[in-house]
């Protein structure tokens, strides 16, 4: 029987691979809509403590500052996706591909940014749900801040959670110098269900 | 349960619209249908029924939702509405048209046909509340800025008031002191004049006695005489006396000067108000102080623009000019530069005069005390520290403003602003 | 006769899944690698007549491995197995000389089909 440590390593490896596959689906969604190559990051799992946000902040692969958006998901497990559209990037370049009039987006890019958040977040999590054979539902996206980092934003809130699992994934479109950073955030009491789903998937694979 | 589901859709306080890929309406619940005049809606084109809809954008959203099988959202904040439905509060509400948050998602029929469901949520209460909040915040911000400005003015007024009070207090003291000192000073002066006269006469006598003794004193007494002269140190005393007298008289003059300044200081608001040419005042003052300035500057640079006649107490303003010029000269160690300028600001009804030097300058921590009575940067014994506070009082009387710009090693520039029509004009406009 | 096969993927789970999905009775001498650098070494050491190659890996990714392999004349058939299946990536992979592309999550059928295509089944 493998040790607790080995099981933990296997679980995390499995979740990372589940994310990798989901990201592939999300990237394909975006790539088909905008007809450009989309780059995927290697997903990174973070165990975050609300009292030690700076430590989390420094462990992030990318620390963008820009417009922050969020979208809730629920069903088999509950959480929120946080997205950051780095300041200086031009999401307006995606406007034609997504059917948004360029002039309106240049005046106010919020609607386009929210739709991008929705597209990527729901595509990723749908992929996760399919692989874990469960169901997830989504709420509408909204803007959290116009120029902030995730850690600064969370630092300003009085958080109702102590520990959470943050899954760090990024999509970039090189030809348009655009990077979209996502954090799939699952608070501890909800992540149990997520890990159960992973265990069940691994059980079927019969390791 | 199917019947119950249908009932729910009919009663729902949320708009449900189902269209096919060709954007033809398949179903619309009463929330939607009640807002259209061409009923029934089923079978009609969405864009024919609601021409206000953004067609290209909506087509793209429908296609996207069918292809990706996800949900897409709109929010009143970014897009106030899709449909021009009237507000549900036509009597008590403040908005004419409904604010909406909508969503689109795919539904598949039993016959495996793919349709799109559009939900329409009335966000008017939230939208209106948000807008009211925003305008309240803006108003609060404006009020806060106004308050900050008032505070600033209050602080400025307060410091002026403090300055005035100091002056008023000191003024009374000065008047009393001047009066008290003046009496003894008068008889000291006349006594000293007397002394000078008497000493002169006694000197004459001693001189004459000396001559006589030289000629007629027997040799037996000569030695006694010499010893007496020596023991009394008479030669030294006679040599010293003139200097002592002179110093005493100088001392008295200085005391008289101080008493004069004190009296001026206390007497600041007397005199005749009249229209005067301030440039003439500057020029005549320059003549008077020429002897003080000639050692440290070649010539005082004058840049005097045309000034209208200013309603003032000319003698007092000249006193101010003199004070500033003498201060400038004293600030220059060996040789330097003094410049006087005058300008008119007709739109503001004021004239501005500046007195600048490139002397030793004033240290930063002393700047806000230089107009205080008895404050001086000169060594003990030189300067009374009354000049600038008197000048401050005079400018105040004229409802003007005096300020200084200075830095150690870089010199100072004093700036006087005066209302052309005098203090009464200022009181009427403020 | 065992065919030297290298499975390259940074995910241990993914490697195990692939190995399990290989046709039963297909004899292979399997080397596991977790990044492109290790895969290149395995190819050069003659341990990869067939290389199952993931694309998103740290240190050296799959596309770079394909580029390097093109320069070296090694007897390796590359079958790309990746979660990133967008059209431009598939085109690039083919143009860099990969035999075929299998999209994750893989099935035993797809794997068998790819091996048939390579003439190894």
Which characteristics define this entry?
heterotrimer, A: 207 residues, alpha+beta, eight-stranded antiparallel beta sheet, C: 121 residues, alpha/beta, five-stranded parallel beta sheet, 5 helices
Oligomer: heterotrimer
**Unreliable stretches covering 5 or more consecutive residues of chain B:** none
Shape estimate of chain B: rod-shaped
- Provide the low-confidence segments of chain A as ranges: none
> The CATH topology of the largest domain in chain B is what?
Heat Shock Protein 90
Assign the CATH class of chain A.
Alpha Beta
Strand content of chain B: 15-25%
Explain this structure:
- The complex is a heterotrimer of chains A (207), B (430) and C (121).
- Chain A is α+β, with helices and mostly antiparallel strands.
- In chain A, 46% of the residues lie in helices and 28% in strands.
- Chain A has one domain (4-205): CheC-like (Chemotaxis protein chec), CATH 3.40.1550.10.
- Chain A has seven helices and eight strands; from the N terminus they run αββαββαααββαββα.
- In chain A, strands 1, 2, 3, 4, 5, 6, 7 and 8 form an eight-stranded antiparallel beta sheet that branches.
- The longest helix of chain A is centred in the first third of the chain and has 31 residues, at 4-34.
- Chain B has 430 residues and is α+β, with helices and mostly antiparallel strands.
- Helices cover 52% and strands 17% of the residues of chain B.
- Chain B has twelve helices and twelve strands.
- Chain B has helices at residues 2-11, 30-33, 46-49, 55-68, 124-216, 219-232, 234-266, 278-288, 290-293, 314-331, 387-397, 423-429; strands at residues 15-20, 25-28, 71-73, 100-108, 114-122, 274-276, 301-304, 310-312, 338-345, 350-357, 401-407, 411-419.
- Chain B has a five-stranded antiparallel beta sheet. Chain B has a five-stranded mixed beta sheet with strand order 7-9-10-12-11.
- The relative contact order of chain B is 0.06.
- The mean pLDDT of chain B is 87.
- Helix content of chain C is 40%, strand content 21%.
- In chain C, helix 1 links the parallel strand 1 (3-8) and strand 2.
- The two termini of chain C are 13 Å apart.
- The A-C interface holds A 9-10, 13-14, 16-17, 20-25, 27-28, 31-32, 36-38, 40, 42, 131, 202, 205, 207 and C 10-14, 16-17, 20, 56-58, 82-89, 103-105.
Layout: helices, strands, pairs:
The complex is a heterotrimer of chains A (207), B (430) and C (121).
Chain A: H1 4-34, E1 39-40, E2 44-49, H2 53-59, E3 66-75, E4 79-86, H3 95-98, H4 102-107, H5 110-131, E5 136-138, E6 142-148, H6 150-156, E7 163-173, E8 178-187, H7 188-205
Antiparallel strand pairs in A: 1-7, 2-7, 3-4, 3-5, 3-6, 4-8, 7-8
Chain B: H1 2-11, E1 15-20, E2 25-28, H2 30-33, H3 46-49, H4 55-68, E3 71-73, E4 100-108, E5 114-122, H5 124-216, H6 219-232, H7 234-266, E6 274-276, H8 278-288, H9 290-293, E7 301-304, E8 310-312, H10 314-331, E9 338-345, E10 350-357, H11 387-397, E11 401-407, E12 411-419, H12 423-429
Parallel strand pairs in B: 7-9
Antiparallel strand pairs in B: 1-2, 1-5, 3-4, 4-5, 6-8, 9-10, 10-12, 11-12
Helix pairs in contact in B: 5-7, 8-10, 10-11
Chain C: E1 3-8, H1 12-21, E2 28-33, H2 36-44, E3 50-53, H3 62-71, E4 77-82, H4 87-95, E5 100-103, H5 108-117
Parallel strand pairs in C: 1-2, 1-3, 3-4, 4-5
């Amino acid at each position: 029987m493998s040790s607790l440590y080995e099981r933990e390593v296997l679980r995390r490896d499995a979740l990372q691979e589940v994310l990798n596959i989901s990201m592939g689906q999300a990237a394909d969604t975006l790539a088909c809509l905008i007809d450009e190559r989309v780059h995927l990051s290697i997903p990174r799992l973070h165990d975050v403590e609300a009292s030690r946000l700076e430590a989390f902040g420094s462990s992030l692969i990318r620390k963008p500052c820009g417009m922050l958006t969020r979208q809730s998901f629920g069903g088999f497990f509950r959480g929120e996706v946080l997205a950051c559209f780095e300041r200086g990037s031009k999401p307006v370049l995606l406007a034609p591909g997504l059917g948004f009039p360029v002039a309106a987006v240049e005046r106010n890019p919020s609607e386009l940014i929210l739709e991008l958040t929705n597209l990527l977040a729901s595509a990723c999590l749908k992929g996760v749900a399919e692989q874990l054979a469960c169901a997830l539902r989504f709420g509408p996206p909204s803007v959290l801040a116009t120029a902030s980092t995730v850690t600064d934003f969370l630092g300003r809130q009085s958080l109702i959670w102590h520990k959470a699992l943050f899954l760090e994934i990024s999509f970039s479109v090189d030809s348009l110098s655009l990077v979209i950073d996502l954090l799939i955030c699952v608070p501890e009491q909800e992540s149990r269900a997520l890990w159960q789903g992973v265990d069940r998937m691994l059980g079927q694979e019969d390791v | 349960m199917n019947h119950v589901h249908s009932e729910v859709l009919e009663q729902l306080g949320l708009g449900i619209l189902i269209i096919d890929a060709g954007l033809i309406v398949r179903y619309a619940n009463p929330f939607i249908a009640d807002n259209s005049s061409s009923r029934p809606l089923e079978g009609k084109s969405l864009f024919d029924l609601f021409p206000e809809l953004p067609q290209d954008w909506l087509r793209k959203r429908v296609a996207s939702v069918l292809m990706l099988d996800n949900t897409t959202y709109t929010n009143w904040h970014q897009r106030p509405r899709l449909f021009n439905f009237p507000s549900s509060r036509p009597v008590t509400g403040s908005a004419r048209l409904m604010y909406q948050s909508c969503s689109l998602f795919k539904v598949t029929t039993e016959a495996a046909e793919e349709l799109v469901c559009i939900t329409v949520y009335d966000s008017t209460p939230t939208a209106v509340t948000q807008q009211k909040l925003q305008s309240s915040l803006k108003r609060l911000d404006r009020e806060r800025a106004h308050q900050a400005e008032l505070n600033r003015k209050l602080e400025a007024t307060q410091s002026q008031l403090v300055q005035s009070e100091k002056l008023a207090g000191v003024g009374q003291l000065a008047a009393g002191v001047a009066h008290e000192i003046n009496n003894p000073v008068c008889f000291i002066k006349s006594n000293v004049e007397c002394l000078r006269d008497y000493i002169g006469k006694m000197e004459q006598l001693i001189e004459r006695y000396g001559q006589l003794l030289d000629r007629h004193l027997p040799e037996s007494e000569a030695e006694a005489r010499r010893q007496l002269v020596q023991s009394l140190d008479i030669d030294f005393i006679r040599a010293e006396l003139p200097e002592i007298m002179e110093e005493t008289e100088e001392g008295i003059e200085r005391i008289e000067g101080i008493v004069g300044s004190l009296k001026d200081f206390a007497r600041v608001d007397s005199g005749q108000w009249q229209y005067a040419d301030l440039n003439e005042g500057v020029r005549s003052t320059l003549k008077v102080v020429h002897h003080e300035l000639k050692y440290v500057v070649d010539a005082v640079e004058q840049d005097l623009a045309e000034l209208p006649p200013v309603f003032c107490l000319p003698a007092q303003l000249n006193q101010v000019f003199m004070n500033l010029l003498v201060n400038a000269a004293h600030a220059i160690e060996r040789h330097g530069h003094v410049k006087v300028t005058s300008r008119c600001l007709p739109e503001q009804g004021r004239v501005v005069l500046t007195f600048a030097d490139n002397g030793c300058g004033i240290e930063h921590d002393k700047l806000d005390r230089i107009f205080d009575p008895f404050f001086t940067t000169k060594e003990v014994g030189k300067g009374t520290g009354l000049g600038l506070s008197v000048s401050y009082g005079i400018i105040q009387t004229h409802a003007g403003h005096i300020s200084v710009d200075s830095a150690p090693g870089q010199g100072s520039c004093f700036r006087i602003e005066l209302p052309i029509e005098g203090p009464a004009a200022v009181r009427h406009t403020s | 006769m065992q065919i030297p096969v290298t499975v390259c993927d940074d995910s241990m789970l993914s490697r195990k899944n692939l190995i399990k999905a290989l046709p039963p009775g297909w004899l292979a001498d399997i080397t596991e690698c977790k990044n492109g650098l290790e895969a290149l070494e395995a190819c050069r050491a003659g341990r990869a007549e067939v290389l199952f190659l993931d694309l998103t890996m740290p240190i050296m990714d799959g596309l770079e491995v394909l580029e390097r392999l093109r320069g070296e004349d090694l007897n390796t058939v590359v079958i790309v197995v990746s979660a990133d299946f967008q059209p431009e990536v598939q085109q690039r992979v083919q143009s860099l000389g990969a035999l075929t592309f299998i999209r994750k999550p893989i099935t035993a059928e797809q794997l068998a089909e790819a091996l048939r295509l390579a003439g190894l089944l």
